[in-house]
Amino acid sequence: MTVSQRFEKLNGSEVSREVLENIIADAKKANETEIVYRLSKILLDNPNSEEFYIELKKYPKALNAPLKKVDCTEVLNDNGTLKKGWSFENGSFFSAKKNTSEVTTDFTEKELKALGVPFIENPTTVDDEVYFLGKPVSSEDIYKMITDKMVSLVKNATGFGYKKKWGDYEYYEKDGFLIPFNFVTKKEYRGVNFLMLKDSDLYSVYDNPYFLTLKQVKERKGTIKKGAKAKSVIYFTLLFKFVDKKKNIDFGTYDKKKMIAFLKKNKISEKQFNLVVRQVPIIKYYNVFNGSDIEGIDFKLDTLKVGKVYKSEESKSHKKNEVAELILKHQPKPSPSLSHGGNRAFYRPSTDSIKMPRLNSFETPNDYYRTLFHELSHSTGHPSRLKRDFTGKFGSKSYAKEELIAEFGAVFLSAQAGIIWHSDKNHAEYLKNWLSVLKFAEDDKRFLMRAASQAQKSTDLILNLNKDNEPAFYKDLIKLVKSKPKKKPEPKQMQLALAGQKLTSSVEKFTPEIPKIKEEAQPAETFLAAPIVFDTPQETESFIKQEEPTVTEKKPKPVQPQLKQNSGSSLADKLLERQNKVYEYYNISDEYISAFLGKIEKKEKESVVITLTGGQGSGKTRKTFRFMNALAKNYRVGHGSLEEHPDSTLYWDKVYEYIDDDSFSNISNPVIESVEDLDTLIKNNDVIVIDSFAKMQELEKGFEIDKDLRKKYDGKLFLVIFQQTADGKMRGGTKSQYDADIVLFTEKFNDYTKSYIYPDKNRYQKTPLHELRYNIYSGELQKIEEEKEE
């Protein structure tokens, strides 16, 4: 058996470290460089493991492909790591080009287009008003950015989160939009960019759906509001690369014409282009601003009707959604059969059929369509369509991926129909499946992106796109809007039209096909849609929640007590003053830090002080930078770094590790050499971090929290770090430490991943303090119950 055969046989097997070491040794003798590198990486990444379960990634080119092998000693060090100047990309070794930060993507051009990622040709020279290119970064950085965003969306996609936003009403409280658009091209952002432009969750509704680059805003004489945050849009381009080691040539360009000219100069025919030139997809991003954050531009929002949600007081009406019906009508044939009855929703691959409860079994009509879109997305995986894997069992990676495809597909389709998507499923199996999705996403950084790619393919198939990528239902959608009477219009939820397109003169009236079903009226019920797609008798059942009819009694509003004005300083006088007063609280973007610290008031008089105390190596610095990053999303943050010089490499290592791109511009870190320097820092910022109090006392003897910070300045938020000695004493004394509004301590463990912060005092926290522990390593709240079990 050859070394290559032994390597391929490893896939799906459990082997010992010794077995892998033997294969590596034989691979070195046989000059199988790829095998040496890939197996060595497994051993080096897991130095304490003796047993391994191997899953080999399949690259487009097999190991036995008739290619010239790269010499092992030329590419790898003795321990199997890459030598300087070499990279391993898509199953092959390449000499790294000098002066470039590019890292190639392992997605093909076809896969990137399926992800909804637009292609931009020759981005280094393009002079098109549509694009404002961001600074190139590595593909891995962009993948992480996309994955982090999608993970946050998935985390918020479970439970009954929508009820917190919309109360008892199905529709939105005000007019809004569901689909993000490029303002210049008027084209929709699709796939991964649809998700990247969502605010914090999949429920997001835009007041203005248009996005522009900074360049586009300036060209249209607009201005960006102070404090506005840009969002990232992903695109890809092609890098043309020619390498000839014998002639020591390594040339790359994004401009195809330049590459052709280069080949001619080196006496290579243009006909040989595809044989000698590698075309490498490179993923990048640029920044855009939402129209709501832009002043001075007329967006003409009244002309945009696609994906529009209208304010409505309707919540229990069981009228069909006409746009959703149009989508169903225009899906390509043959489509899966649809039948109604029972209390479960599922797709059965063997019969290519969807079974749904009847419309009036759902709490609202749009709950019906959301569930139907989920099952319809499953049906696109049928062998006659996109041919996806339906064999996975519950809890497996393939099962989780298929469920994610169906949910993302339901999101995309719901947006087209003007339906605010939410998940109303909260039964245990559903939530368990989402937890496995997050686990797989953590282990495989491409997992969520590939699921989004498949979901976009699924959506495109159902929408039956034409050559211009327009859904087939658009032609009837225009007729639908035109046919509405002017004096007595239908509910605004149905008034959808194409963006920027004139209505036709046709007055054809759309009448949805409603099947005649002879049966007794059914009571209104809440249906929890089952995610199961397997063709087995053991399909997971969902249950109908019977609700008793409720009678709402109209109660008179309580009469406010008439307060008598006295001397002007009584409680009664002050209560009168406070009745119309608006109180402001700090908006902390990190959900865990926000929950841990509580609802902190932004005072008009005096300031709020937080103290954090811990010994050396307890994680104070990690927490401090996380705190700054979270607050810098919305406020100006000043860092008085007295422990570490703000220009040192140690300081900047922490900056690169913890500070996001959109927080950089809001953080300042001048050198603090006097109280005057600190005073300037405080006056120029909203949030001030002082590290540390002991060093501050060295600059100003007698410096105290209460008199020199809290009572001296108005409307500020301070975080002051206290150092703790080995015997548990505070450097600088404990008086100032306990003068703070919030007093925090660190609990240090030998295993630093277990170290946490706990509150000793917090005036703004309603949760019992003994229940609050912030894990410094993970940046999340720690469950007390788990610790007890451990």
Largest sheet: 9 strands, mixed
- Number of helices in the DSSP assignment: 25
- Per DSSP E runs of 2 or more residues, the count of β-strands stands at 27
Structural class: alpha/beta
Tell me what portion of residues adopts beta-strand conformation: 15-25%
Describe the structure.
- The chain is α/β, with parallel strands linked by helices.
- Among the domains are: 3-95, no CATH class; 322-527, no CATH class; 591-789, P-loop containing nucleotide triphosphate hydrolases (Rossmann fold, 3-Layer(aba) Sandwich).
- The protein is built from 25 helices and 27 strands.
- It has a 9-stranded mixed β-sheet, sandwiched between helices.
- Helix 13 packs across helix 14 (397-416), helix 14 (397-416) packs across helix 15 and helix 14 (397-416) crosses helix 16.
- The longest helix has 20 residues, at 397-416.
- The two termini are 47 Å apart.
- Residues 61-68, 97-105, 125-136, 159-171, 313-317, 485-567 and 785-790 have low confidence and may be disordered.
- It comes from Tenacibaculum caenipelagi.
- Residues 141-289 form the N-terminal domain.
- Pfam families: ArdcN (PF08401), MPTase-PolyVal (PF18818).
- This is Antirestriction protein ArdC.
- Residues 546-568 are annotated as: Disordered.
